[in-house]
Amino acid sequence: MDPAVRKIIHIDMDAFYASVEQRDDPALRGLPIAVGGGGPRGVVATCSYEARRFGVRSAMPGARARRLCPDLIFVRPRFEVYRAVSAQVREIFSRFTDMIQPLSLDEAYLDVTVNKPGMASATRIAEEIRRMIRAETGLTASAGVSYNKLIAKLASDQNKPDGVCVVPPGEGAAFIAAMPVRRIHGVGPVTAKRMQALGIETGADLRDRDMAFLSAHFGSAADYYYRAARGEDDRPVREREGRKSVSVEDTFLDDLVEEAALVAQIERIADTLWGRIEKAQAWGRTVVLKVKFADFRIITRSRSFAAPVRSAELLRQAGRDLLVAQLPLRMGARLLGLGVHNLEGEDEGDEPGAQLALGL
C-alpha cells in the first residue's frame, strides 16, 4: 500500500477527569467542578464544561479559578480510576486497529487505513468508537478524522464536546488557513506571540511566508511551520520511545527579583508540572531547575533522588530548594522552569511535521 494513503483518527475524551467525577457522583452533575488542588497554591488539572463557561482552564492556579467562579467545587484527583477508564477506552480502540499512539490518559491517534472490521469509512469508525465509549464508560469523546495527524488533532477540538469533525484530503490547507496560528499544534504561546509581532495571525498568514523568511525567524522549526501551513504532516501513528524529560517553564512580563515572588512562581510551576507528570504517568528521579536572566543568560541546577519523585510536595520542595540555593540572583529572572529527567514509565508526548489522498 502507498504509505502516503492514510486515514487517521484523533480521539479526545471530553473534560476527562471532571467527567469521570461527575459520572461517579450524581450530585456533581451539571455543576462547575475542577479536579485538582483548591488551596492558594493548588492548580486546576482539568475542569467541567460548566466551569469553563466562567473562564476556568487547566493549569490555572486554584485561587484564580475561585475568583472567576465562586461556586467552583474542587475535587481531589483519583488517578487510579482515570487509568482504569483509560484502559477501557484503549481496549475499544484495539477492536479496530493495533496502530494506536496514546498521547495521555485521555487522547490518542489511531491509524485505521487498514482496520480489523474492514470498514471503508474512517468517519464511520470514529462514530462507532464514540458510541462504544458512551455505552461502556458513560463518557463522551470527540473525534477528528483526516489524512494526517496534524489535521486530525486540530479537527478533534473543532466541535467539542461530544462532536466529530472530518477534514477530507484536499481541504486540509483551507482548514489550517482559517485557523488562528496559536491553535496550530507545535506553535506554543511564546512562538505565537513572535509570529503575531511579525504580522502572522492566521494559518493563511503563515502560508504566505516563504521558507527563507521562516528560516530567518524560526530556525530549525521553519520546515515544520512551512509544511503545517499547507496541511502537510507525514508523521506515522506509532508508539514512541520514552522521552527523557517532562518540564514546564514560564516567561514573565516583568523580571522577578524578590524571593517571595520567585518562590511563589516556582511552586506554581511545580504544581503544573505535577499535573503533567500524573497525566503522562511518567516519573523521574532528577529534578532540574532552569533560570533565564534579564540578559538571557541561562543556568540550570539539578538534584537526583534514589527513586522517582512520586509526591507533589517532594517535587515542590525540590524546586524550592534548588531556587533558594541560587538567591540572591545576580539580576532579575525573566523565565523560570522546572523539569524531571531520567523518566520511568510510558511516554505520552507527541512532536509535530505530506499531503495525502484518500476518501474519508
Q: Mind explaining what this structure looks like?
A:
By secondary structure, the chain is α+β, with helices and mostly antiparallel strands. It has four domains: 8-13 and 80-172, Reverse transcriptase/Diguanylate cyclase domain (Alpha-Beta Plaits), CATH 3.30.70.270; 16-79, MutS, DNA mismatch repair protein, domain I (3-Layer(aba) Sandwich); 179-228, DNA polymerase, domain 1 (Orthogonal Bundle), CATH 1.10.150.20; 245-344, Dna Ligase, domain 1 (2-Layer Sandwich), CATH 3.30.1490. It has 13 helices and twelve strands. It has helices at residues 16-24, 49-52, 62-68, 79-94, 122-137, 149-156, 172-177, 189-197, 203-207, 211-218, 222-228, 259-280, 312-324, and strands at 8-13, 33-36, 44-47, 73-75, 100-104, 107-111, 141-146, 164-166, 245-256, 283-293, 298-304, 333-344. The strands form three sheets. The protein has a five-stranded mixed β-sheet with strand order 5-6-1-7-8. A four-stranded antiparallel β-sheet has the order 9-12-10-11, covered by helices on one side. A hairpin with a 4-residue loop joins β10 and β11 (298-304). The longest helix is centred in the last third of the chain and has 22 residues, at 259-280. Residues 345-360 have low confidence and may be disordered.
